[in-house]
Amino acid sequence: MKKLWAAFALAAALVTTVSGCTIVDEPAPAPMSPPEATAPPLVTDYPTATGTVDTKLVITLLQGNSLGVSTRELNCVGTQAVVPTTIVDADAACALIAGSDKLFSKEPVPTDSKKCTDTGNQVVADVFGESKGKHIRVSFQRNNLCNTKVWDAVSPLIGLG
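Now predict its structure.
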């Protein structure tokens, strides 16, 4: 019986050596991580709110087929950004919001072959939260020339895409 067990152990060692396998397991490869967030770092030089925060928005940028996702936050008291805000030029975004009551009422325009030609740019900005006591949920797109013009008009809020 000892000879049989020794032969089996020798055979297992030989098979392991010939096949290139090792007894020690190699570390498993790291799992695929989600796309890197492209949001700018937290901007901390905005003041703490002294009045009532009238705009609290979260802006999520989605760049075609999940190639990139970033989330930013904007908090305003009137035309002034306050913490926590993660938009670089947040004062301009707050001024844009304070100066326009129809800013969030724009609907994306469908792509057609005449006026609103396809740009091939599949970037979407979803904006949600509250502004001036109203619930906000709107999407901006850069998929055609008409929507790109709207995007450019609100770029202080959602970025250049």
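Confidence is low (pLDDT under 50) at residues 28-39.
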